[in-house]
């Protein structure tokens, strides 16, 4: 599934950050507040997929969000409340 299809399943979605690989959105999916990281361009998809794989390996370690779903060009993970780095 691509992000353009998945976005219909997310309520109250809004963009909260942008980096060189992708954009991060926050919203509600299946009753949970989640973050969604989306590749900015086709050449960034592999980097986004790799990031999701790394987070999956860190599952259970405090401070790292759990990946909840992976799509073709995005992944969904737990939203962790807090202050952004550098603020």
Provide structural commentary.
- There is one protein chain.
- The protein is of the alpha+beta class and 87 residues long.
- It has one domain (3-78): Phosphorylase Kinase, domain 1, CATH 3.30.200.20.
- The chain has a five-stranded antiparallel sheet with strand order 1-2-3-5-4, with helices on one face.
- The mean pLDDT is 94.
- Helices cover 20% and strands 38% of the residues.
- A hairpin with a 3-residue loop joins strand 4 and strand 5.
- It is globular, with a radius of gyration of 12 Å.
- The chain starts with a helix and ends in a 9-residue tail after the last strand.
Search tags:
5 strands, 5-stranded antiparallel sheet, alpha+beta, Phosphorylase Kinase, domain 1, 87 residues, single chain, globular
Topology:
Blueprint: H1 3-6, E1 11-18, E2 22-29, E3 32-39, H2 45-57, E4 67-70, E5 74-78
Antiparallel strand pairs: 1-2, 2-3, 3-5, 4-5
Summarize the structure.
The chain has 87 residues and is α+β, with helices and mostly antiparallel strands. The protein is 20% helix and 38% strand.
């Amino acid at each position: 599934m691509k992000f353009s299809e998945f976005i219909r399943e997310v309520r109250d979605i809004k963009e909260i950050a942008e980096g060189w690989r992708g954009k991060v959105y926050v919203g509600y999916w299946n009753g949970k507040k989640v973050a969604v990281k989306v590749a900015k361009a086709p050449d960034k998809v592999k980097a986004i997929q790799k990031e999701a794989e790394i987070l999956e390996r860190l599952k259970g370690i405090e401070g790292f969000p759990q990946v909840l779903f992976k799509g073709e060009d995005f992944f969904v993970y737990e939203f962790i409340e807090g202050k952004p780095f550098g603020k």
